[in-house]
Amino acid sequence: MAVATFFGARVNRREDPRLVTGNGLYTADVVLPNMVHAAFLRSPYAHARIKSINTEKAKALPGVIVVVTGKDIASKLNPVPCAWQLTNAEIKVPKYYPLEIDKVRYVGDPVAVVVAETPYQAADALEAIEVEYEPLQAVVDQESACKPDAPLLYDNDVPNNLAFHWKISSGDVSRAFAEAEVTVKERLVNQRLLPTAIEPRGALAQYNPSKDELTVWITSQNPHVHRLLLSLMTGIPEHKIRVISQDVGGGFGSKIPCYGPEAVVVLLAKELLLPVKWIEDRRENYVSTIHGRDHVEYVELAGKFDGTITGIKVITYANLGAWLSTAAPGVPTILFGTMLSGPYKIKNLECEVFGVLTNTTAVDAYRGAGRPEATFILERIVDIFARKINMDPSEVRIKNFIPRDAFPYTTPTGLTYDSGDYEGTLRRALEISGYKDLREEQAARLKSFLQESTETGKRKRTKEKLIGIGLSSYVEVCGLGPSSIVRSTGFALGLWESATVRVHPSGKVSVFTGGHPHGQGEETTFAQIVASELGVNLEDVEVVHGDTDKVPFGMGTYGSRTTPVAGGAIVFACRKIKEKARKIAAHLLEAREDDIVFDSGRFYVRGSPGTAKTLAEVAWASYGAGSSELPSGLEPGLENTTFYDPPNFVFPFGTHVCVVEVDTETGQVKIKKYVAVDDCGKQINPMIVEGQVHGGIAQGVAQALWEAAVYDKDGNLVTSTLSDYAVPTAYELPSYETASTETPSPHHPLGIKGVGETGTIASTPAVVNAVCDALSNFGVKNIDMPLVPEKIWRILSSSSPRLESPSSTTSPS
Amino acid sequence: MSERGASSSSSRESSPPHSTEAGGRSGGSSSKRKKKKSVSGAQSGISDLEAALSGRKTIQVKVNGRVYQREVEPRLLLVDFIRDHLGLKGTHIGCDTTNCGACTVILGGKSVKSCTMFAVQADGEEILTIEGLANGKQQELHPIQKAFWDNHGLQCGFCTPGLIMQAYWLLTSENPNPTEEEIRLGISGNLCRCTGYHNIVKAIQSAATMLRSARAQEQVVVTAREGRR
User: Fold this and answer.
1) pLDDT higher than threshold 60 for residue A4
2) Contacts of B196 in chain A (CB under 8 A)
3) CA A276 – CA A272 distance, rounded (Å)
């Protein structure tokens, strides 16, 4: 029987037939009888007092059912909760209400809501609401916002707009820098990004008075967490709310948080006794759904001329926006500072983070959440160091990697890396990319470029394109995570995961997972796990998620946690079922339990495989529960619910190589080759792993080359549409060459690690390193992202290339 | 590729610039409203036009082979007509600026973004949506749908119907034998945030091969009702 081979097979996704035929059910697709439509009036000012709101004209418009302001519902809704209140820093969590009452703090801050019979009527009514604002000075950048004279968002509730000041250090950083043979430092900016799930957010709430219950369809990555937070905000008991989130059109972190308007929709549905639907449009999504990244970093590295890195020091200004979103404080601290030594054996490390509120949309977890920021500064500063000591960047990395025999490895920040072979992925990536040949080609191109420049006397006019090669090695923490650790950091809940595996009387299996995949393919990979564990056919396993009435409390999908943690819960639930099934099989076969062998879905007495009981027969007996079917003392039924709390995080790793061609006439960067070698341990479905890596790379490349959320000084998001925010198309992105090594996680029952964010984490610095490498002969040390043609053209236009080749540019000094 | 990342607020939308005067304006206001305003603002006889716009118009369209007659507001976007009036929810909305392509349908043989047309402009037209490919049945996929499935050309699936319709137009009307670059250019009006496009391109290459070989064998594999005229 081939069932055991499901694990590791490139099985086509079972999600797809409904999605390719237009039969997916996204929140906006749900239609209920008598449904009405909400629209939010949002502030055009980044910072202003609300002097008055007149809703009379709006209320008189056709189709309008109700217009509600922040004042109207102030007593009915609690502030938006923040779920990650750091323990090792004094944190100020300001009260941020679902609808603002007396002051707005960013462009897009909601001040009123209209409910009308159609979405068009609701939009009309928004324009008829008259709001009188008293504009205040706004502050949008984090370094200015925490200066003494900056305007205060929450007055004395958050002095200096400083939500927290977090520090972590280990070893002796002062000594490392005092004794350093060489130091490098750089200001690096990790620009603000817009997550841009193609499906905007939305919610539809329906109150059922006969049962005093609410059903909420919502765009959520974590339905149970949403239910809990909606309950906290509205005061409606948790067990009286059912959250359903069937298909979700991408999240990338932006559908983790609970947002104020979601609670408003719930409240309105209960008050109006009508189903109320609200769906964002893209502009609303861009100004009101969380943003990502936005760090200003001051990075210093201490090292030796032989390439040894001895210390790293980082000061980070993290822009948190106008309120502390659900997981926001943990992103630039726990998920960032603890990973700053990366794959290297750096002992001396210091990181200081200023978490600053500004008059901008809140910043929270966006794909990678903290780890891309950490990897970016580490991989950039390592390259800058390598250039300074005139060493190949691959050699510097190899010199400092934690060796493969050093695992489990305790980092200076106290994490325990489970397993790794960092040099293995790097060497593989060099081999696949043809690194040595690339360096030769690069030198040849440079020579020809310089010759051509000299001949024409007009360097800028040369047609030669420069080549740059960028490496990025990473290790990331995912599979969040052991509850005792995440609780100790101030997270409001543990990060275990739940699973119910139910074998029905006919032997068919339903799996109820607390994870909530929305593109990651776990409806398929979880079925592969169960089919392999229980020895049943893949099509006999159903995976259920996204409905709080069906699945036990679960933490949801984010942080590359679903396959390792929710998958772990499923494995253990299956194994407990097998234990019980073995007892029943022994009873049916009139044998001792110890003598029962389980193989490919069949139980038999050792040595007698011909007389076997299938799992279906055992299941039937378990529900029949007659005395000939169940041993005495055993409960009927064949299902198990497991709450799996992982003993550790998992730490996937890898090396990416990016090769770029820089057009010296236009400054345009083209990716010629992109090689990713990742190690996420055992793979359940390599096809899905590759897909996750591809998508991750695309988002990281997009940050390096094109994307930036830009505010003007008054706090207007000038990139508030997809015409202005440069999400790349197929024409701009390259193909990717992916490969993997396999270093299983020793503590995971299946040896797997997460892979949802690795591509994003690795790719951004690989691209920037490549471009800076291409321009190194122009004296370029760093260029702030995104590396758009104009910036590069200006560098090429204003500086002369040095005639040395990159390998002999600088001598140690 | 232009420098889009650092561009200023030169939005293609017809929304007014931020004014400093007091008064309610929605920072995240609806595209539907703006469309109406841009039309009225362009005309001198505003009140006449407003009157005309406030009326309703009866339109007739053939969608996936079925004729529908509906009375609509002139400002109703085609995508809202398809989704909310005809109940065909496979056509999605991901933006309001004609960028994302999630709403792509085939209208009169051409691929169009249905968020950028009014329903009244489709009066008398024939439309094919994702539900019209292979009868919308999951057991009976069009070769392009099958290729997306086989090549893992989708993840969250939200952009997928639009991309499949765009690929359908590309392969059946524009270029049955595209190069990789032609495919990438051909779908550059559709955004996908999950896949990085790698497997979408592979899927379309594979679908092109399937469709060509089907044509060569003179087998009718195109089961879209629109194709059966």
Assistant:
1) no
2) 694-699, 733, 736, 759
3) 9
Beta bridge partners of A214: A207, A241
Closest CA to A552 of A526, A517, A516, A513: A513
How many Å apart are CA A377 and CA A258, to the nearest integer? 30
Contact A786 B6 (CB under 8 A): yes
Residues of B in contact with A714 (CB under 8 A): 18
List pLDDT tens digits, range A598-622.
Answer: 999 999 999 999 999 999 999 999 9
Q: What is the pLDDT of residue A801?
A: 74
C-beta atoms of B28 and A731 within 8 A: no
Question: Which of these three, B72, B107, B132, is where a domain ends?
Answer: B132
Rg of the Cα atoms in chain B: 20
- CB of B24 less than 8 A from some CB of A: yes
Give the range of the structural domain holding residue A284, as residue numbers without chain letter: 31-136+199-249+255-288
- A63 has a chain B CB within 8 A of its CB: no
What is the tens place of the pLDDT at every residue in B90-137?
Answer: 999 999 999 999 999 999 999 999 999 999 999 999 999 999 998 766
Note whether A704 and A746 are same-domain residues. yes
By Cβ distance, the residue of A26, A282, A668 closest to B96 is: A282
Strand order in A669-679's β-sheet?
A465-475, A653-663, A669-679, A737-740
Please report the pLDDT score of residue B39 as a whole number: 36
**Residues of chain A contacting residue B3, judged by C-beta atoms under 8 Å apart:** 788-790
Q: Find the CATH number of the domain harbouring A781.
A: 3.30.365.10
- For all residues of chain A together, what is the average pLDDT? 95
Closest partner CB to B193 (pick from A109, A250, A723): A250
* Predicted pLDDT at A291: 98
Going A384 to A330 to A419 to A751, the CA torsion angle's sign is negative
Any domain includes A385: yes
Handedness of CA B161, B164, B168, B174 (dihedral sign): positive
Whether the link from the prior residue into A408 is cis, omega within 30° of 0, is yes
- Identify whether A422 is part of a domain: yes
Number of domains in chain A: 3
Query: Which domain-ending residue is among A644, A665, A693?
Result: A644
Q: What's the CATH code of the domain at B174? A: 1.10.150.120
B21 in reach of chain A (CB within 8 A): no
Q: Do A735 and B131 touch (CB under 8 A)?
A: no
In terms of residue numbers, what domain contains B220? 135-229
Q: Is the same domain home to A632 and A771?
A: no
B147 contacts on A by Cβ (under 8 Å): none
A interface mutation test: which of B12, B14, B21, B26 has the most A CBs within 10 A?
B26
Q: For residue B97, give the nearest of A722, A730, A732 by CB distance.
A: A722
Q: How would residue A798 be classed by pLDDT, with cut points 50, 70 and 90?
A: confident
Tell which of A582, A611, A644 closes a domain: A644
Q: Are residues A616 and A657 in the same domain?
A: no
Is B89 touching A (CB cutoff 8 A)?
A: yes
What CATH number corresponds to the domain at position A99? 3.90.1170.50
Burial B63-74 (b: 16+ CB within 10 A, else e): bbbeeeeeebbb
Both A658 and A578 in a single domain? no
Q: Which residues of A fall within a CB distance of 8 Å from B137?
A: 21
Q: Model ipTM?
A: 0.96
The answer as to whether A663 is a domain residue is: yes
The reply to whether A662 and A701 lie within a common domain is yes
> Same domain for A586 and A653?
no
Mutation for B interface: A11, A20, A245, A710, most B CBs within 10 A: A20
**Is the CB of residue A282 less than 8 Å away from at least one CB of chain B?**
yes
Q: Is the pLDDT of residue A813 over 90?
A: no
Residues 6 or more apart in contact with residue B41 via CB below 8 angstroms:
B14
Chain B CA closest to residue A287: B28
Kindly identify which residue of chain A lies nearest to residue B158, measuring between CA atoms. Answer: A249
Q: Percent of chain A beyond pLDDT 90?
A: 94
pLDDT-based confidence at A318, cuts 50/70/90? very high
Yes or no, beta carbons of A21 and B28 under 8 Å apart: no
* A443 lies in the same domain as A561: no
